[in-house]
Amino acid sequence: MLQAWSQRLLGSRLSGALLRASVYGQFVAGETAEEVRGCVRQLQALGLRPLLAVPTEEEPDSAVKTGEAWYEGNLSAMLRCVDLSRGLLETPGPTGNILMQLKVTALTSTRLCKELTTWIRRPGASLELSPERLAEAMDSGQDLQVSCLNAEQNRHLQASLGRLHRVVQHARAQHVRLLVDAEYTFLNPALSLLVDALAVRWNSPGEGGPWVWNTYQAYLQDTHERLRLAAEAADRAGLAFGVKLVRGAYLDKERATARHQGTEDPTQPDYEATNRSYSRCLELMLTHVSHRGPMCHLMVASHNEESVRQATKRMWELGIPLDGPVCFGQLLGMCDHVSLALGQAGYAVYKSIPYGSLEEVIPYLIRRAQENRSVLHGARREQKLLSQELRRRLLGRGLRVPH
Ligand SMILES: Cc1cc2nc3c(=O)[nH]c(=O)nc-3n(C[C@H](O)[C@H](O)[C@H](O)COP(=O)(O)OP(=O)(O)OC[C@H]3O[C@@H](n4cnc5c(N)ncnc54)[C@H](O)[C@@H]3O)c2cc1C
Question: Its GO biological process terms (predicted)?
């Protein structure tokens, strides 16, 4: 609404300049590869690593972005992002330290994911939609026919599998690990099916994986159980397992959808319950890491100081190395005091860095704004710390380390 108002009052050039000087400048690295490199150099000087993200956000059911051309364009952007991620490495050579975010709905339509989710939830669909069958189709490029989909949907599925395969193949060749984002509950089962299919092919022990990670949202009631089952299944299958653990970014929409459809709210009843869920998932994953070593990787993707404290304490107790299979993730422009403290203590810390033109990142920025309503507690603390530091610099007093 604010954007629409400012465009009307100030015109698109002035309102664009205003956004660039404010939210865009705060949360986005820039538009060009050179601007991204500049931003990453600053972060690297502070001991932080980049986690690039192409912010392609499709509103579910959006009519505008349909047709294979839009997804093919996104595929090219993803492949360029892999190259950029690889090129940002300080010292060249093979390494498993380069991570990048991948949004599956940039490569396949939310409509297809919705349809697949409906079928996955039905009993008896499991065999036809097994990860192994999809993995086989991805690898061989052979025609895949799924009986629950019509001809057009089958064609789109085939094209989507091809795009996913190409991104991971390229990322694997460039030694870039892909962290697949979690989205809405009416899409997530389909996204997880696709991740599982990619994992069958790319997370096998011989590959030195995990190259494809999934994201688990602790604000959902069933997440701990799903995470436990997935970790055990990967262990049984001898596959490497990679997890980005988040609280979840779509709270308002999840609740609104449940209200609208008259279904049960899938989210935790309150913030405290989400915190307890995050803590349990974190404990589960750290235990797995301590048992499986480099076959199990975890990103503690949170700005929450309590969660970060729990992770570092348990890593020490379990003997997990500081810069090993566990790393930390925060968003660019948010909670730098948490990232810097972790980085300076020797932990592997990634800043999630979206980049792109103002138009491309607007939906991402709107989501950040919505999210920041619930993260205001952390923002207030950050504001206090920034004022303290400003006073210190202006008055020339000694350094106070936050604790
Ligand atoms: C590197 C990185 C990658 C990310 N990738 C994803 C992703 O793929 N998918 C995704 O969904 N999100 C993703 N996020 C965003 C993340 O889910 C959170 O929205 C964000 O990090 C804020 O949570 P927090 O743990 O940092 O902080 P906190 O401020 O402690 O927690 C805020 C979060 O608590 C939860 N919450 C707040 N109020 C309530 C309530 N009343 N009831 C129940 N729960 C509540 C919400 O999840 C809210 O976002 C990512 C974040 C990072 C840092």
Answer: L-proline catabolic process to L-glutamate
Q: Which amino acid is at 204?
A: S
Q: Are the beta carbons of 164 and 194 closer than 8 angstroms?
A: yes
Is residue 153 within 8 A of residue 75, CB to CB? The reply is no
Contact at 8 Å (CB) between 322 and 346? Answer: yes
Q: What is the 3-state secondary structure (H, E, C) of 185-251?
A: CCCHHHHHHHHHHHHHHHCCHHHCCCCEEEEEECCECCHHHHHHHHHHHHHHHCCCEEEEEECCCCH
Q: State which ligand 1 atom lies nearest to the alpha carbon of 181.
A: 8
Whether the CB of 274 sits within 6 Å of ligand 1: yes
CB of 219 closer than 6 A to ligand 1?
yes
When comparing pLDDT for 383 and 27, which is higher? 27
Atom 16 (ligand 1) nearest CA: 248
* Type of residue at 331: L
Q: For ligand 1, what atom is nearest to the CA of residue 270?
A: 42
Residue 49 to residues 2, 193, 226, Cα–Cα distance (Å): 33, 29, 29
Q: Structure tokens of 230?
A: 């997935």
- Look at the block and give the residue holding tokens 């349990």: 280
Cβ 334 under 6 angstroms from ligand 1 = no
How would residue 109 be classed by pLDDT, with cut points 50, 70 and 90? very high
Choose one of 374, 377, 380, 382 to mutate for the ligand 1 pocket test, by most ligand atoms within 8 angstroms of C-beta: 374
Q: How far apart are CA 25 and CA 58, in angstroms?
A: 22
The answer to whether residue 374 scores a pLDDT higher than 80 is no
- For the stretch 28-69, pLDDT in tens is 888 888 999 999 999 999 999 999 998 776 655 555 556 889
What confidence score (pLDDT) does residue 401 get?
46
How far does residue 329's CA lie from ligand 1's centre (Å)?
Answer: 12
Distance CA 86, CA 97 (A): 10
Does the Cβ of 371 fall within 6 Å of ligand 1? yes
Over range 94-115, report the average pLDDT: 89
For residue 219, the CA-to-ligand 1 centroid distance in Å is 8
Comparing C-alpha atoms, which of 331, 294, 246, 323 is closest to residue 47?
323
- The structure tokens listed for 301 are 């993707």
CA distances from 296 to 48, 245, 251, 369 (A): 22, 13, 28, 33
